[in-house]
């Protein structure tokens, strides 16, 4: 099973709120997911981001690939998947 770390949209129209989730690559954007890994709220300035860093490391170690958007969010938060 191929796994991606991606955003799943929640919230009302014109008021987006996203969950960062580990999901099967064939699942729809807002469909089934394996685990919630954090949240992203772009409506607040600056954007509110929460991450479960240990679980994100676990999924990356298992072979999950983050989407480009999630990768940029992780980079903005200073997340390093391989702490030395």
Topology:
Layout lengths: L2 E10 L2 E10 L10 E7 L6 E4 L1 H9 L3 E2 L1 H9 L8
Parallel strand pairs: 1-5
Antiparallel strand pairs: 1-2, 2-3, 3-4
Task: Write up this protein.
With 84 residues, the chain is of the alpha+beta class. It has helices at residues 53-61, 68-76; strands at residues 3-12, 15-24, 35-41, 48-51, 65-66. The chain has one domain: 2-Layer Sandwich (S16 Ribosomal Protein, Chain: A). It has a five-stranded mixed sheet. The chain is globular, with a radius of gyration of 13 Å. The N and C termini lie far apart (29 Å).
Query: Number of folding domains?
Result: 1
Q: Could you please say which CATH topology applies here? A: S16 Ribosomal Protein, Chain: A
Q: Tell me the major beta sheet.
A: 5 strands, mixed
Mean pLDDT: 91
* CATH class descriptor name: Alpha Beta
Q: Tally the helices: what do you get?
A: 2
Task: Give unreliable regions as ranges.
Answer: none
Quick structural summary:
The protein is an alpha+beta fold and 84 residues long. The protein has two helices and five strands, in the order ββββαβα. The protein has a five-stranded mixed β-sheet.
Which keywords apply here?
84 residues, 5-stranded mixed β-sheet, 2 helices, S16 Ribosomal Protein, Chain: A
């Amino acid at each position: 099973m191929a796994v991606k770390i991606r955003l799943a949209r929640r919230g009302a129209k014109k008021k987006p709120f996203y969950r960062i989730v580990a999901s099967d690559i064939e699942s729809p954007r807002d469909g089934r997911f394996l685990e919630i890994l954090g949240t992203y709220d772009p409506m607040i300035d600056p954007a509110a981001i929460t991450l479960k860093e240990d679980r994100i490391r676990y999924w990356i170690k298992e072979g999950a690939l983050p989407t480009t958007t999630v990768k940029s969010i992780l980079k903005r938060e200073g997340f390093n998947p391989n702490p030395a």
